[in-house]
Amino acid sequence: PSVPRYTNRLINEKSPYLLQHAHNPVDWYPWGHEAFDKAKKENKLIFLSVGYSTCHWCHVMEEESFKNKEIGEIMNKNFVCIKVDREERPDVDKVYMTFVQATSGGGGWPMSVWLTPDLKPFAGGTYFPPEDRVYRVGFRTVLLRIAEQWKQNKDALLENSQKIMEALLTQAEIRGQAQESPPPSEEVMATCFHQLSKSYDEEYGGFSEFPKFPTPVNLNFLFTYWALHRTTPEGARALRMALHTLKMMAHGGIHDHIGQGFHRYSTDQHWHVPHFEKMLYDQGQLAAAYTRAFQISGDEFFADVAGDILLYVSRDLSDQTGGFYSAEDADSYPTAASGEKREGAFCVWTAEEIRALLPDPVEGAAEGTTLGDVFMHHYGVKEDGNVSPMKDPHKELKGKNVLIVQSSLELTAAQFGLELGRLSALLRESRQRLSAARAQRPRPHLDTKMLASWNGLMISGFAQAGAALAKEEYVSRAVQAASFLRRHLFDPASGRLLRSCYRGKDNTVEQSAVPIQGFLEDYVFVIQALFDLYEASLDQSWLEWALQLQHTQDKLFWDPKGFAYFSSEAGDPSLLLRLKDDQDGAEPSANSVTVTNLLRAACYSGHMEWVEKAGRILAAFSERLLKIPIALPEMARASAAFHHTLKQVVICGDPQGQDTKDLLRCVHSVFCPNKVLMLADGDTTAFLYRRLPFLASLERRDGKATAYVCSNFACSLPVTSPRELRRMLVP
């Protein structure tokens, strides 16, 4: 490759997204004092651009504007330009996104914000085309107008930014009153169920017309709602909504039928044409959701989809040191000789390609039927492509097919006169051939940044699937990733988590010159992962670490005045707001998950202050939980755990004994949302016995492994058979 014409300071960064912009003609700075000092010294405005490496419109804006020499000159002359990877710095992203949403009514990435030299925002938006269009003002025009305003009306602009800041501060305060009690869980659960039920798509599943997002938080809420209302029509509907949605997603084009895993979201109502990027946080949460669907329904279909997700992550998003990478991009080069990338190029097919790969005649089917005919029928492949032009504004998918299961195996088998087992084998063989052909195509860009929070979500996916599906290899993959976190994203001296690390040269793990400290979400998702990992592996060292991190989280983020946790630490002068997330979106909000974490932590430690904290969080978000719990389904679900008190399921026995294993198998095989599992192996010097004196009084009955179901440290009568235990867990 030729020597790049331009190189800016981003060349010294580790984030793949920042490195993508290191050769723009724009004189980019990373977020930090060098940029802030320059803006103050030269009395210049700051242009802040925030995005992430798999963001399609971020690539478009870079191609059109940030690689344009003239636009670069305007930017460099009038502004100090700062580039931020939102996945590295969610704190910076959230502050300015709050501003953009409040002032423009919408938000998204790339986010473009103009700030005064003291970092206060006064103008902003998302994607701008380079030049003026009929309905959109161009980026060049906006840059010149704002530069002119700064020259002519500096004082008015500063005053305006001050007012905006004050309004944002007022808006950002979620305050719980000290005496307020948590909202009644029954009411919160019922309202959330009705709001989801109203927005549910009866035919295709999901909770909007389009675009359609996987939103595992909704599915987890519905599973819990069903578990608490099993015998009612509402309970049955909740389960049907969740299982149907998961089934339709697995059949849809949002599911990668050849390369496994799930794409980010569907642009249409049928889960057919996706935005093709694949995010780690989706894989982790969906693996857990499909695992729960299997626990509840016993349908192997769901277990297979969970396995398919974990296969994808193990193969394509795993670092050899045990960590998980963040994402794969949507855009790639159609062939090695192509000059420009196209969305979905790695994943889509022409009918011609499929015929050429699958020419074999199929014995037993009608004369002349080929493997290609069977495959194309089953996956909805059309000669001239199966993507509606409406869903392909840039004509990138013209003539291409996104595979979608159009008919059941039974119908396809009947259509070609094949028996089911044989059809499954033929489709499997076909998928393997397409997979081998796809491996010859240029791969999409891989974001090899490793984030503590997303690694936490993925560890939970592996641990839960390993326990429920009885797959030891999944549990050991989770252990490997947790060991990676302890080695690379934890500072034992301070007891604190770090946000991110990176794959470096020669596949080593690298850290930034100034490591980014962990945010609330890093603590919360890692603590959740460690509890899940303890239940799957029964290794108490994970519990010990989880409780230690919970204490650190309390110290760094708890708001003693307004209750609940701040998303970021105090003491960073460049952060104008300390916010608290109040929405469960693609990922659950940290305060939602932490309610359940605190209840689990109290069960494992006897530290009852944590139960009190959980109640205070629910009280702080009370108004939202009563009015629009659909915005906080994970917190609504947690309110039920708070209200019903977690069951402590204690198995007394020798971990190696078959009788102990049978009781553990029973616990893992049922979906019982409001419980914690612990093994009392008789070693009274171990961590759990030291923390929970009541364990010493629980004995094995007649020398056999024995189970107790306890609540608030008071226990039921002992049982020794899995059948009796099952009855206690699923009344």
UniProtKB/TrEMBL annotation:
Pfam family, one: Thioredox_DsbH
An individual GO BP term: carbohydrate metabolic process
Coiled-coil annotated spans: none
Domain Spermatogenesis-associated protein 20-like TRX positions: 7-168
Source species, domain of life: Eukaryota
Protein name per UniProt: SPT20 protein
Source organism: Casuarius casuarius (Southern cassowary)
